[in-house]
């Protein structure tokens, strides 16, 4: 559980979803780079390894009732805030190109307005055409701080400017430990960092539930094949349920990271999904005129056809090569 001003809690409702998807975004980013710089100083100053360790700690605390609350230090609380800020890209990416339609944007803004009502935050930017990163950063930080003991984590820079005597006096006056700002998680060998990151992602995936998997009947798939593949809504319907996993890109970017092409084939249809600008195929779905469906699958795509249930289950897995 997580230690908040109102006692030990786990996140619920839409707040939990925003936290979870923001944390998943950070996990993805930390696989391919790092350390991250999100604008939360106590987290930004850490190397990649400590960032991964802290993300696991706060994710488990915020989502699992059986988890003991971590001791609060600036770095721990900053990691909690960082998980909310991980959701910022999902807001801002569509706004950077407002002329390009993004089928996920309405859902994202609806979630944020819903969470603002759930926690009585008092405000949420309404006119997305005039938003900037600073406004959304402030919104997400204020949301995170509703579930924190306090906001002392953000005062580290001010303490750095104090003499040792002044800092000690300030620590005592604020009832915070001498190591509150200096504490760091125990060092972890480099070869264990990826396992910790994967464990964290497993918790997030489990919490995301069945929405992380696309399940369509063959009738639905045929309908998709008949629609124009230039329509981003169609692609969105294919990949939107991948939230919480590690698709080819963060889930909100997938509509612009993949090309979907349709070609008539012997009275039927062919749907090909490939990385943008590449001829490499992730998966190919052939639907013949008689309704026969064949799936040609490539790494890193897992496709399972359940003929008895008349379902096709498609999961796009992590793809380092893209």
List keywords for this structure.
322 residues; alpha+beta; 2 domains; 4-stranded antiparallel sheet; 3-stranded antiparallel sheet; 13 helices; 9 strands; globular; plasmid
Describe this structure in words.
The chain is built from 13 helices and nine strands. It is α+β, with helices and mostly antiparallel strands and 322 residues long. It folds into two domains: 2-208, no CATH class; 213-316, no CATH class. The strands form three sheets. Strands 4-5-6-7 form a four-stranded antiparallel beta sheet. The protein has a three-stranded antiparallel beta sheet with strand order 3-9-8. A two-stranded antiparallel sheet has the order 1-2. Helix 1 (13-32) crosses helix 4.
In terms of quaternary structure, the protein is single chain
**In which range does the helix fraction lie?**
40-55%
- Measured by DSSP, the beta-strand proportion falls in 5-15%
Gross morphology is globular
Q: What is the makeup of the main sheet?
A: 4 strands, antiparallel
Number of helices: 13
Q: What is the number of E strands?
A: 9
Order of helices and strands: EEHHHHHHHHHHEHHHEEEEEE
Average of per-residue pLDDT values: 66
